[in-house]
Design a protein that fits this description.
heterodimer, A: mainly alpha, 3 helices, elongated, B: mainly alpha, Four Helix Bundle (Hemerythrin (Met), subunit A), 5 helices, 66% helix
Chain lengths: 86, 220
């Protein structure tokens, strides 16, 4: 059997084993809690913390973008005023 | 540098940032007092970075609070007092009003209206102090009713979250006091609004984080 086929077969077997027993495959301690209020609490907390950086840096990026737009608008007005003056 | 090598003063002149440099040449070809400024100041960038880290700090605290809150069968625990909702609603209104007065102060400094700016800065400081005073009175009442930092996850998360916010409001009030003193000395005007703007940015952050805390800690 070729080496690539052996590798594919090994990967498929490992994947099937993980799917069959997700508890064993739990990568962190909280994933093994099971279905209860604690699991829900950890999931909600994880989702909240995942959203945190996006909301924070999205807001900061928005502030910087609007500051840029405002500065560009002011520059345009100043140039127009200068042209009229000349 | 080898001894004896002379460097002209022009070569060692410190770098002048574009924001402070007069535009003497350009497309328009005209000189004058037009300043080339970056669209966002270095100070504002620093404050935004600070706000970003502070936001993540509060996100971490709220994440841990969510774990305790959602996994608890009873919240608040039966033996402990309920949090004062009505007074805190009024206090929330006070803090949100301070954001409005701060916005009016920033507008006033851009319009170069010194008296109006000072008046609104003082009003903002007064509202901030009022918020802290009401929080302090409520904390004293809660401690008297038995809700302490050692009262399990309920007391621990409440005092940590709300205490951290109160510490931030205190820092903002101290900063604002410094800005008010400088404003009284006529330091800020339409050409130099930086100090007021930076303080306002931090104040807005402190005000913006409060409704999130209020909903999650008091109402949820």
């Amino acid at each position: 059997m070729k080496q690539s086929k052996i590798s594919t077969l090994a990967a498929a077997t490992t994947g099937a084993a993980i799917c069959a027993a997700p508890g064993i495959a739990a990568a962190c301690a909280t994933c093994g809690i099971g279905d209860g209020p604690e699991a829900g609490a950890y999931n909600a907390s994880a989702i909240f913390l995942l959203a945190g950086p996006y909301v924070t840096f999205g807001t900061i990026a928005g502030i910087i973008y609007f500051a840029y737009r405002r500065a560009a608008r002011r520059e345009k007005i100043a140039r127009a005023a200068l042209t009229v003056k000349q | 540098m080898a001894p004896g090598v002379k460097v002209s003063s022009a070569k060692v002149r410190p770098f002048v940032a574009p924001a402070r440099r007069h535009r003497t040449t350009g497309d328009s070809g005209s000189g004058g007092d037009h300043h080339e400024r970056p669209f966002i100041s270095n100070g504002m960038l620093a404050i935004l970075a600070l706000i970003g880290t502070e936001a993540m700090f509060f996100a971490g605290l709220l994440g841990s609070f969510l774990v305790f809150r959602l996994s608890a069968p009873f919240w608040p625990p039966p033996a402990l007092p309920r949090l004062p909702i009505t007074v805190t609603w009024v206090n929330t209104f006070v803090l949100m009003s301070s954001a409005v007065t701060m916005g009016l102060a920033v507008r006033a400094v851009h319009q170069n209206r010194q008296r109006r700016m000072r008046r609104f800065l003082l009003a903002t400081g007064g509202l901030g102090v009022t918020f802290l005073a009401v929080q302090g009175v409520e904390w004293i009442r809660l401690i008297a009713h038995g809700l302490k930092l050692s009262s399990g996850a309920y007391g621990g998360t409440f005092y940590t979250l709300i205490g951290c916010h109160a510490a931030h409001v205190t820092a903002a009030v101290i900063w604002l006091a410094c800005v008010i003193v400088a404003a009284m000395r006529g330091r800020y005007n339409a050409r130099n609004p930086g100090g007021v703007e930076l303080c306002a940015a931090y104040w807005y952050f402190v005000c913006a984080i409060w409704p999130v805390l209020f909903v999650m800690v008091y109402l949820m």
